[in-house]
Give the backbone structure.
Amino acid sequence: MRRLFNRLLDSLHISGRDFAPFLLALLLAFSIWLIHNLSLRYNDYLQVSVSATSSLDGYAQKSTNKCEVIARCRARGYTVIQSKLRKKKVIEVEFSPSTLKHKGSDIFYVTSSVLQDYAHIFFGDDATVEYYVTDTLFFRFPSVNHKRVPVIPVTSLTYRSQYVGGPITLVPDSVTVYGEPYVLKNISGIQTVQLRMFDLDHSVDGMVHLEPVRGVRTSVDQVRYSVDVVRYVQMKRMVPITFTNVPSDKEFLVFPSEVEVTLKCIFPLMSDPFDNFSVVADYSSFLGSLSGKCKVEPKFMPAGVISFEADPPYVDCLVGDK
């Protein structure tokens, strides 16, 4: 064999010193030939295994089976070889619920007219599908239990001095959860991932993801949040206490007879919030108290008032007959 190889080199007038350049040139020529042929377009049958995912109400997110998709395609040699190599690999494809037709029980199907929209996922952007050999794909999505639960915001918010935020608003404020009955019975709400913002001096909104729960699927994986942030001023004043719900045959007294009220008001002030402002001690609250005290509350909250505090918040009560 070696003698035959040497004779071939002699016939080509290639000496041992020229062998390395000759081998390199041969390799380069083969590479050019291979790249050229792989870049050409061919007609071939391509095949891929597909499993389905979808957000079907009342059903599992993933199909329990896979389907073989076969199509006559025109594609470059690279794509054909790549398809042959990944024939045994299962591709997970997300189908819109509107494209899945319900056959009955847990079976849903996709027609070839719909598959045309997913050709780039099955075979790559380079392939052009001439026709599908596989006419219809049938997937099984097991039915699952579900219930509606509230979304619980988890926040860590701080505000710049003289600014305050209102309660966080979530849209939607509840989601549908899917899973096995023994899992769902222990779920009373779904938390958001922690929303962390510091030194806020303006209103904020955005999207926040839900905290995943093992064994549970949610109808959405994120919700919109918003927090109204306003600048405020703080005002204090001594305000006398009035009474409410006192029977006509009873006399109701409280000690002290006035409290220091602190109001946080949205800046700028449109008017004095203490105009016509009053606090009350409710006789009904006293009757339900074991300590003989009742809580001081505002009779009404003026427009622009964010919060109310009374010092002391509870007053001693004395009741007698008239």
Observations:
- The chain has four domains: 2-39, 41-140, 145-227, 235-321.
- Helices lie at 2-11, 19-39, 77-85, 112-115, 119-123, 181-184, 283-287.
- The domain at 145-227 is CATH 2.170.120.40 (RNA Polymerase Alpha Subunit; Chain A, domain 2).
- Residues 186 and 271 are 51 Å apart (CA to CA).
